[in-house]
Each structure stands twice: as structure tokens, then as C-alpha cells.
Amino acid sequence: MVRLVRREPGAGTESRWDPDAGTMDERVLDDVETVINLCGVGIADRPLTPRRKELVHSTRVNPTRTLASALAHRLESTGVAPALIQSSASGFYPTDATGQPMTEATPAGDGWIAELVQDWEKAARPAADAGVRVVWTRTSPVVDSSGGMFPLMKRAWSLGAGAKLGDGTQHMPLVQLTDYLRFVLWAAENSEASGPYNLTLPEPTTNAEFTDELATQLRRPRVFKAPKAVLSAVLGDLADQLLGDVWLEPQRAVDQGFDFLAPDVQTAIRFSLRD
How far apart (Å, rounded) are the C-alpha atoms in residues 202 and 205? Predict the structure, then answer.
């Protein structure tokens, strides 16, 4: 395994690159079967000021563009290249209620986050156009006790301060960490896998169902409600992702035989609460 770093390499398994300048040592691709690109600063952990938005965009698009260019060049010069497992996000899709689930064939939504994800995916297009096998993982928020927002939610619910967002009827896409990791391995090993894949629960849930299930499994009440107006004022661009109705299905993964171990909200929360 080779890890690309921006600092001085500290081990034999690290290689320095400069994704903002578009440079990397393409020799690191020797004997590599799969490149997994997870680059990008957090989008929900700090206010999305104009400067933060620029950083969110550049730390996703620039590394992706650099990797895609290197993979395309390698395929054109040697005839072989590793596959690319490219991070993407469920923010690609519209947040307006459609009355039916969205699949990978659904057109992109509007707004800053949807445009960000489109730019992110387009940055990998040169590799796919050159013939490199590219998998875009349109990942829903990942839940697990090891990190992300779930530990904060667990603490709030444990204190009896859990709250549904808005009226809670909006569909809430999510995926458990175990299934996310399993899918990445499946996509790396499955030579037929390519294109976009929605990573979300096969059995969709709403925000109210999620909050009530978390309260039930923690044996705590869920009595609060976060008003839509307050959330919109505080969260800005992120509010649409939390309050909008994002009803997704992982159609392509299911159709191609990927088996989710946590297909529903009850199992996803139970897995996430495991020590």
C-alpha cells in the first residue's frame, strides 16, 4: 500500500505529491491495482464561509484531477492502469420531495453542494474517458461510533436532548460504516463495477424514524424538535441536506449483487452503537 502525502514522506510506503500544482510521482502506481481517493476537508464540522467553501472545493477537486490525469497518462503510455475508487456524495441529488426514490439515473440537483459534487465527479472524468475503470461512491452520511457526527448525536440522545429536524418526515439517507468499507472492497475487487453508485440504506428511513430509533436503542426520550427556520439560519447551505427530502435507493449496488449487512435504520444504529 502506498499513501500519498503533502508533507515530507516519513515511511517507505509514503510518497509526496502536490495536488494543487497537479504533480505526483507516477512511479507510485507501479504494481498498484486500485487507487482510493478520499481527499477533502470536512463539510459539516465548521461554518461554510466563502473561504471554507473554497477550501472544501479545492481539497476535493484538485486531488481528484491530479489522480485522474496521472491514471489516464499511465493507461495511454503503458496500456494498463489501476482502477479508481472515487469519493462522491449523496449531495449530488435534489433535496425537493419527488414522491418517488432517486436512483443513479436521477439528474443532479441545484445549489452549492450539488454543484460541488458535480465538479468533484467531473474532475475524475479524464480517467474514465481514457478507459480507466472509475467507480464514484455517492456516499450518504456514514454512521459509526468511531467518528463523524454519530458520537455527538449519541451523546445528545444519551442526555435526553435528541431532536428531530423540522417535522421529521423528510427521507434521511445514511449508510453504516461497515457497509461503506465493504462496498469499497467489493468495488475494488469487482472488475465489472464502474460508474456512480448510491451508498445508502436499501430500506429508506425518515429523520423522525432515525431519531426515534436512536432514542429507543439508547433507552432515552426524544422530546425536542429543531425548527426549520432556526436550522436554516444557522446551517445555511447544509440546511437543505438535513431538511430536504433525499429519498435515495442504492439500485446499482443491489442489482449487481452487493449485500448490505445493515440494510435498515434499526440495524445501522445497532451496528453503530457496538463498542
Answer: 9
